[in-house]
Amino acid sequence: MRQRIILIGLLFVALLLAGCGNQSAEESGSTDRCDMEDPPLYTEGVLTVATDRPAYPPWFKGNPKNYSGYEGDVANEIAKRLDLPIKWVVEPFNKSYAPGAKDFDFDINEITITPQRQKAVEFSKGYFDNAQGILVMKDNPAADAKSVSDLKDLTIGAQVGTTALDFVNETVKPVEDPKVYDTTNDAKSALESGQIDVFVTDLVTTVYLRDFEIKNSKVIGKYPRNEQFGILLEQNNELVGCVNEALTSMKEDGTLKKLQKKHLQQYLDVPTLEK
User: pTM of whole model > 0.85?
Assistant: First the structure.
């Protein structure tokens, strides 16, 4: 009888511990959830959102105190669903995904989600499917390129730390090492001055540069790479749960689709480069 009582007692303890263990497991996955009523913030009562400067249309429009554009409006909508005002701050693209503490809640800046970056920072769910765009000058021999293989013998430029540069190195594999620039502006100037034949960056930006910034330029094609832009946060930041909840609701109620149609539709109709 005594042994039976001991066994029942041990079973009760085991069940109790198992229950505690399940609770711990849920708590350990806290980055998947967030209290939308009381989100963890860098500054209490304000959603601090970072992006680079200059911030290019159509991703951003207006001034830093009141951004619109696709990414500007995505951030505004998240803030609205969290019932918070936005404070915009500047964070250089190449610094955003470096390890360490962040002085913002999240960064939205055409940042592709990659396994390497995920080792140092937290990402939300994707909010845009990206492709690489290939921008050239009309009077450059590169304007006749129809395939990735046609780019191999050309001088190609891309911004440092971008998936555009990864595409050049991993897919194009040019004969000459690509020229690497700190900013989009630097690469843009290099293309205009003839220092490079080709500038590779995200598709929407190449089309915007063609239409509004670089006269006599041409987007010869796009190359999809199964990439998604994600909102970047400090590693293990529980706010990612709130951001994901807002993005999920924006997708389900059609808000993301409406914003894409409003700001980006005219930039997406570009032929795909052959391999």
Answer: no
